[in-house]
Amino acid sequence: MTKTAEQILGKRAIAAVRKPINQAGGLPGAAYTSQDFFDLEQAKFFPRTWMGVGFKADIPNPGDAMPIMIGKLPIILARNNAGEIKAFHNVCRHRAATVLTKPEKGLKTLTCPYHAWAWDLDGSLKAIPFFDGTKDGSRTGLDRCKLGLTPLRCAEWHHWIFVNIDGKAPPIEKHVEPLNKIVTGTEIGATKLGKRQDWEFQANWKFQNDNWETYHHIWVHKGIFNKMSDDLELKTGEPWTETLQDGSFVTLKARKGRPPRTKSGGEHDVKHPLPKIPLTSGASRTVCTSVLFPNVTVTVTENHLASVIIDPLAPDRTVAKMGFFFAGNGATGRIYAPAREQVLNRWLGKSRKPGGRDGIRSQDFGIWEEQQIARHSPVADQLVFSPVWERNVHHFQKQLLDVIQGIH
After folding, report:
1. Which of 91, 97, 256, 354 has the fewest Cβ atoms nearer than 10 Å?
2. What stretches of 184-327 show up as alpha helix (H) in DSSP?
3. Which of these, 319, 302, 207, 297, lies nearest to 250 by C-alpha position?
4. Is 272 in the same domain as 321?
5. pLDDT band at residue 262, thresholds of 50, 70 and 90?
6. H-type helices in 146-244, by residue range?
7. Boundary residue ending a domain (156, 190, 224)
8. Does 143 share its domain with 200?
């Protein structure tokens, strides 16, 4: 039987998280290291939310399909002949083998490798060869209509694919509405994929959301953010970003009057700068970086969009699915290759390796792995939040507990 949050973390620790930020304590170490808590998330958290599971560009054409995992749950994403993306439990209805074991292109059917049972791309059972001794299994009275692949609620929004396991989450339009308000006027749907990269890191998935502050920038991202004045008005102590929370998302949005980034922070000295992401009529350009609860990040700049989908695999194993999108020919045009490379170097580092520690992503992953080690200490149960910088972190941790405990 799955333990409760109170049994794993303790009532006092949960109450501490729910206090006002200047009095609150952070989630205790067990929330990051305990298999019991990961099992609780599997049972009470992941199923109740819209989990980001992939980018539409991962399966662009009819017949394309890929296996994914939400925690320990195997799932198939497939684009059917009508071009719609479908999600199914990746479980054969005969003997419970996984049906799809690797990404595929141009499929007509989804065929189990164990006994070759096959389903079409809408999940209907089409073949049960030799089930009753005949080539097509035609003598059996088996009701094939009851043995289709088990569907999951699936939705698309711009570049992203989402799955809601229990089928009870609010409509996807409601889920993305707060983020839609932030990016209104920016034609993010007009951007195209320029780069996909998946990296695994040895830390808990929640560190992505716990990192949604700019306090760490000049230390973790030295060389990219070089001075505290990049993130703070030194005279007033006010960050250059607004911290906003609204239901399903948290964001860091650039305030008006923000000074330009240091030279290493942007695109410089290229003959052909990247095209700017187009705006709708009358819209003003905004730079914002947001988390769409619980596991999708969206950073919108003037010339590119960077996104990460976080896949939780275990208490200490996570995959980051990263996509980088550009306007017009910026995604693939040869003349924009140097400018595109600068953007990717900033995010992924010149080494393009998760251990390179020379790009924003690998630097973040590195510090999260250090946090994962430290979270095993009892001292890690006695943490505090900065009211100036870490309101987003506090908001996320309370929201996580709300979903797990059924508080809405």
Report:
1. 256
2. 207-210, 217-220
3. 297
4. yes
5. very low
6. 172-183, 207-210, 217-220
7. 156
8. no
Supply the DSSP string of 92-160, one letter for each residue. -TTT---S--S-BSS-SSEE-TTT--EE-TTS-EEE-TTTTSSTT-TT----GGGSSPPEEEEEEETTE
Residues in the chain: 408
Query: Which CATH number covers residue 198?
Result: 3.90.380.10
Provide the 3-class DSSP secondary structure of residue 48.
helix
Q: What is the DSSP-derived secondary structure letter of residue 254?
A: E
CB 168 within 8 A of CB 48: yes
Residue 342 and residue 273 in contact, taking contact as beta carbons nearer than 8 Å: no
Question: How many domains, the chain?
Answer: 2
The CA-atom distances, in angstroms, between 23 and each of 9, 19, 72, 385 are: 18, 6, 35, 8
Burial of 191 (0-12, 13-18, 19+ CB in 10 A): buried
pTM: 0.92
Structural domain of 66: 52-156
Which domain CATH number covers 125? 2.102.10.10
Clarify whether residues 375 and 312 are in a common domain. Answer: yes
**Beta-strand pair 288-292/249-254:** antiparallel
* Whether 174 and 280 share a structural domain: yes
Q: Tell me the pairing of strands 85-89 and 73-79.
A: antiparallel
Is 127 within the bounds of a domain? Answer: yes
The residue among 294, 317, 320 whose CA lies nearest residue 71 is: 317
* Residues 316-360: tens digit of each pLDDT: 999 999 999 999 999 999 999 999 999 999 999 999 998 888 999
In a domain, 24, yes or no: no
**45-71 residue pLDDT tens:** 999 999 999 999 999 999 999 999 999
Longest dimension (CA), the chain: 83
Asked if residue 40 belongs to a domain, the reply is: no
Last residue of a domain, one of 156, 190, 223: 156
Q: How far apart are CA 356 and CA 148, in angstroms?
A: 45
| Same domain (yes/no): 354, 296 | yes
**Which tens digits make up the pLDDT trace of 196-228?**
999 999 999 999 999 988 888 878 988 777 654
Please report where in the chains the tokens 């009057």 appear, as a residue: 257
More confident residue, 392 or 316: 316
Domain membership of residue 214 (yes or no) is yes
